[in-house]
Amino acid sequence: RILITNVLDPVKENVRAIAMTIQDITREVELNEAKSQFISNVSHELRTPLFNIKSFIETLHEYGDELTKDERSEFLDTANRETDRLTRLVNDVLDLSKLESSHTYLFDAVELDRAIEQTLRTYQLNARDKGIELCQDIEPELPSILGNYDLILQVLANLVGNALKFTKANGKVTLRAHRAILTPEVGDEITSDVVRVEVVDTGIGIDPEDQQAIFDRFFRVENRVHTLEGTGLGLSIVQNIIEKHHTQINITSAVGVGTTFWFDLAIYQKQQIQQVEDLQLV
Ligand code: ADP
To answer: What is the ipTM of this complex?
Structure first.
């Protein structure tokens, strides 16, 4: 691109047009490559549970009579778990694909306390079963934020689901929301008033070298905790939704101590309803 710019320097408008075209093509090529890579990863991820289910069915079919009742039931349980895994995978892939298409989401006033309470109700039983305390810490009279309720709910569900998955019995998971004022960067005169949402757990933590990779599709930290549960797509979905809210997902974590995922959302100003049309994101 530098070479072209130098050669065509006298006709500046043309230079810009050509440089943009090259940029567009590069982006298009990158998009296509990312899509093929994604399809190849999805196919690979789908094949494993499908292969397992088929093997279990075949074994039961051929040797069912020779197996004990307990063995048969163990085979069926595993096949059932694999089917659940397949369902989760297909749902996550569909969610991600919808988020990345040019679907329009309505942005409106969202009461975060309502979304947090709904998330807690959904996960309370699961937490109790695991012996984990699941609680909320919401600042009183929290202002509404500008966002999409269903998408925010999906972010909270994914983060709380993970927090419960990677926290042991007697641990604690807290959903926090409070007002925060962002300190301006140097030279920036505007301070913005936001609501900060935090999902705090006292779980296994994430090694600093894995903290960026966990947002990559299908990335899962090598460990023996719940190897079957999860698709490695949850945090990619979270990141995508948070970016649609023009902000970013942050992480603070220490191995053996716990993890906090947090993000800031803009406070809703009256009459502020936005149709957010997103560009294709990869
Ligand atoms: P998964 O379906 O495996 O949970 P995610 O994309 O949601 O996929 O998360 C990717 C990986 O990040 C997880 O497999 C886990 O290794 C790590 N991770 C996510 N949340 C936490 C957490 N709260 N504590 C520890 N590790 C986590």
So the answer is: 0.97
